[in-house]
Amino acid sequence: MSEQEKKNQQENAEEVVEEVAAEAAENKEEETFTVSREQMEKMEQLAKLVSDSNDKYLRLAAEYDNYRKRTTREKENIYGDAKADTVKPFLEVYDNLVRGVQQFPEGDGHRQGLEMIAKQFLDVLQKLGVTEIEAEGQPFDPEKHNAVMHVDDENVGENTVVEVFQKGFMLGEKVLRFAMVKVAN
């Protein structure tokens, strides 16, 4: 049905309603109304038009609500991904600070200074929501750990992490970097 036909139908329906209302106003004393078949068909068409318009409105409202929710989720995901992409390079800086600490003997002033910087750096990462993946002594979890070595050790349970070569980090539930570990068989 074209737009013009719909418009004509709506105008006809409005005319029928006006005619019926005018007749009703004239016959206020009567409680029953007589409607011709043609008028009844026009009222049915009008009722169908109203029903179709209401259905279209409800569908459009539902589509808009879904669109709004989807864009909100996408914005949240974009923010999380951008945050993760920003934090990842700083993990290498933290690794270098830890390596620098290990270069000096215990009690050296340089070591103490680097330890303080590394601790402050880790605190900043924690404020951003970055957490360290617990690995040593934990059961091996392929979703958090990257096994680079296996060792036979009967003192430790099977599939248990015995050594951590590089710490892993998570941002919320997302793994930023897997922990590189040695696993006991």
Give the gist of this structure.
The chain has helices at 3-26, 37-102, 109-127; strands at residues 130-133, 145-151, 160-166, 168-171, 174-177, 179-184. It has 185 residues and is of the alpha+beta class.
Write the layout of secondary structure elements.
Blueprint: H1 3-26, H2 37-102, H3 109-127, E1 130-133, E2 145-151, E3 160-166, E4 168-171, E5 174-177, E6 179-184
Parallel strand pairs: 2-6
Antiparallel strand pairs: 1-4, 3-6, 4-5
Strand order of the largest sheet: 1-4-5
**Largest sheet, described in full?**
3 strands, antiparallel
Strand-residue fraction?
Answer: 15-25%
Order of helices and strands: HHHEEEEEE
Number of helices: 3
Give the N-to-C terminal Cα separation: 73 Å
The total count of strands amounts to 6
Mean pLDDT over the residues: 88
Helix content: 55-70%
Which class of secondary structure composition applies to the elements? alpha+beta
Overall shape: rod-shaped
Radius of gyration computed on alpha carbons: 36 Å
Spans where pLDDT lies below 50 across 5 or more residues: none
